Every structure is written in C-alpha cells, then in structure tokens.
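tool=predict chain=A
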Amino acid sequence: MASKFLLRFWGTRGSIATPGAETARFGGNTTCVEMMVGDERLIFDAGTGIRDLGNHMVKERPDGGHASLFFSHTHWDHIQGFPFFGPAYHPGFSLHIYGNAESRANVRDLLDAQMQQAYFPVPFEALQGRIDFLEIEEAGHRIGDAVVRTMAGVHPGGVTIYRVDYNGASAVFCTDNEIDLMLLAGGVDKPREGHVFPDELLRFLRGVDVIVIDCQYTDEIYKLRRNWGHPCVGTVVALAAQAQIGRVFLTHHDPSHDDETITAKVDDAALRLSMLSPQGLVHGAREGMVVAVDQ
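tool=predict ok
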C-alpha cells in the first residue's frame, strides 16, 4: 500500500539558485518542500523550486485543487518562486497561506511587493486562484487529520520551525535556524560547555521520524559565518542525537558547494551521528527525492 505521509523535495539550495552540471545531483532550486499528508498537500516555503511543484499540481489536477502554504520566513530565497507558481493563477485552485499573529499580514505584503512592476510584470491582483491568508496557532493547528505545530527559531529577522504529526508519524521542517546560537548561556561571550540545547527545542523535536534541517556550513566555515543565520554539521548532528531523530535530511545547501562538496559533508555528518546515535540516519536532500515519512 502506498504511504499516506509523503515528503518530496522541490528545492534544496540555500541563498540563491545555482543551476549547472556541478549541482545537478542535489539540485540548484531554492527551498521548497511538499508534504502529502493523507489527502492534504502542505507546502513549506516558495523558493524557485515551487515553480516545478506548481506545474506538477496543474498537470495532476487540471481542473484545480487545494494546498496549504507555510513560510519559514520571508527572505528572498524562500519567497522568490511564488510569482511563478501556476496554481496561484488558476481559478480552480485554492491556496491557504499561513502565518503567525505577527507575520500573517507581513507575508501578504511581501508577496505583493515582489510582484510590483519594478520587479515583476504581473501584479498580485492578477492572480485568479482563491488565496486566503490565515493565522496558525502555535499550540497546534489541524489541517485534515494532520496537526501542524510551530516553534520560533534563531535567524536574522526571525524564523519558524514546523512539526507535522499524522497518524503516529511525524516530520519537521527546520530551515534557516542557527541552532548554534541556542547553545549560549549568558550572551555571545559565554558559550556553554558542549552541545546543551534548550529543553523546549528538545521536546519539540523528540523522536520525530524525519527532520528536514538546514546544514549549510561545515564546522570550519561556520567560524567565519557566525550570526549569518545557518548552523554547522557538528551542532546539527548533536541535536539529532539528543532528540533521538530517526532520519535526518540535510538541506539549504550552500550555493558555493558543488555535488562533491555536499557529498563529503553528508558523509561526515553520517559518520558522526553513527557514533552518537547508531539508529539515526543522515541523507543529503536532493531535488525530486521522495521520502515515506510513515515507514
């Protein structure tokens, strides 16, 4: 029987799209992740990868359908694909776009702003899809039979982590979260010894089956990129081990990293996690990759 909780990567690159032969394996489109949860389609972020997802949706359902779209944050590489999202132009499609109490109006304004004539030829008002902006409840928001919960992460301008639970299975979308900064005890000059994470974060992630997590930097590069909003391999591995996460998919690949460099980083993370948590598995997120969360 086919899984009812599927995750698919449509964009795995961070910061800026990087098409080309040297990035073909892991992909060059910026962040977009789809989850099919029962009959519900949940979309996380609208980087350039959402264009291909939209084409797939229209081909699959020419008469229309429905999807829910969640934004981790509204930096450009996470919203820039929205003007090319076919279902937004299709009168048969409805789209619920979620934000928390602070960000809901901001998301609407920013999607509109990037479609102003100075940047894009078609205005937001020309979209024929039925688009509603809704507020998500942090404690738990039910969509169909799935429950979506949120937690604030650490990133310049703010970021939201999402957890989806469905029929006993769970997946987390955690991009652009500089979890290294969650290790601080008393400010930037007083780091804690070792990897000590906040209880709130560990409770939120505890025992999830699949996590899609930003791991843009190696430990060495992170020393030069502190406060840029992205974590490093060592911290991601420590978090996965302590939270007892089943499968870890590293994403938001650095635009300067080719396939060979990303493969080496993934292999390093896998080796480290095997020593800390033998049951945990590490994969490099690749465009087109489909993951059965409930298996």
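The longest strand covers residues 5-11. Confidence is low (pLDDT under 50) at residues 186-192.
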